[in-house]
Write a structure and sequence with these properties.
The structure holds two protein chains of two kinds. By secondary structure, chain A is an alpha/beta fold. Chain A is built from six helices and four strands. Chain A has one domain: Rossmann fold, CATH 3.40.50. Chain A has a four-stranded parallel sheet, with helices on both faces. Chain A is globular and about 40 Å long. By secondary structure, chain B is mostly helical. Chain B has one domain: Serine Threonine Protein Phosphatase 5, Tetratricopeptide repeat, CATH 1.25.40. Chain B is about 70% helix and about 0% strand. In chain B, helix 1 runs antiparallel to helix 10. The longest helix of chain B is centred in the N-terminal third of the chain and has 17 residues. Chain B starts with a helix and ends with a helix. Classes of the chains: A alpha/beta, B mainly alpha. Chains A and B meet through helix 3 of A and helix 3, helix 5 and helix 6 of B.
Amino acid sequence: MNDTVGIVIVSHSRDIAKGTADMVRQMVGSEVKVAFCGGNPDGGLGTNVSLIIDAINDAWSSKGVAILVDLGGAETNSEMAVEMLQPERRNLVVVCNAPIVEGAVMAATEAAGGGSLEQVRAVAEELSAG
Amino acid sequence: MPLEPEMLKSLVRAAAERVIASTSELTALDQAIGDGDHGANMKRGFEAVLGKLEAIGGQPPHEALKTIGKTLVMTVGGASGPLYGSFFLAAGEALSGKTLPDDVVEVFGRGVGAVSARGRSQAGEKTMLDVLVPVLETLKWAVGQPDVIERVRATASEAVQRTAPMLATKGRASFLGSRSVGHIDPGARSSFLLVQAVCDTLEPRQ
C-alpha cells in the first residue's frame, strides 16, 4: 500500500478545525488521512495538547504527519504535543507555517499526489512566502 | 538545608492560590492586549496542580517540578501551558542531582531558557520573560546574601511594571502593534504573581 503523509488541523475552534477538514475531504478526497481537533480542556475556545497528540496518532502515516494551525497557542501546543510523542515518531511530524484552510488543502493535495513530508510542508508554506 | 516536602507543598499551594485568586485581573489584562483567556487558562492549570498537591508533596523535588510541568501542559489550553509547562519540566530536569536553594540559579536558569526556546523569544518583547530574566539576573548576584528574597521581590515588581511601555513583538499582543503599548503584559503579570507567592512563603513580608 502506498502510504500518504497525514494531515492534522489544529484550531482554537473545533468548528473551524472540522470545517477545514470537511473542505479537505471534499476537495482532495479520502485517500489522505485527515484528523482535526479544537477547543481547550474545558471545551471552550483554545487548544489542548492531549487532543493534538490523539489527532497526530489518528492521522499517522509511515511518511509522517503535517500539522496546520491557526493562532499562537495552537502552534505552541502543537510543538509541545510533538515533543511528547514516542521518540521514533517525533522526527516525522512538522508544524507548517501556513494559513490553516489554504495550507491544509494545499498540503493534502501534495500528500495525495505522493509527496514527501518535506514536499507537503514546502507547498503549504509557499502560501506564507511574501 | 534541602527543600523539605512540607515546604515544597507550601510553595506550590501559595503559587497556585495566588494565580487562582488573580484570575479576573489576568483576564482583564489579557482582554486589553490578547484574547482574554489567560486568567481562565491559568486558573484551570493551577487548580489541576492543586488537585495533585499530595502526590507532588510525596515526590522528590525534581520529580515534583516535572509533575507540575506536565499538569500545566495538559490542562492550561493556551500558549501559556507549554510555556509554563516547559519552565517546570526543564527546571525539574536541572534539579535532578542538585539541591535547592543551593543550585537555584542553575535550576531557575534552565527553566527560563526553556521558556525562551519554546516561545522563540527574548527579554524585551513584552512577555513573561521580561519578569523571569530580570529575576534570574538578580538571583545570579544576590544568592547567598541575607536580603536575596527582598531583592528578588523588588526586581519582579519593577520588571512587571516595565512591560507597560514595551511594544509587543511576540505572542498575540504583537498583532496590536503600537496599541500594545501602555498595558502590562498578562504573562509577565502571572510570572510576577508566581515569583511573589514563592518569595512571600519563604519570607513573609514585614
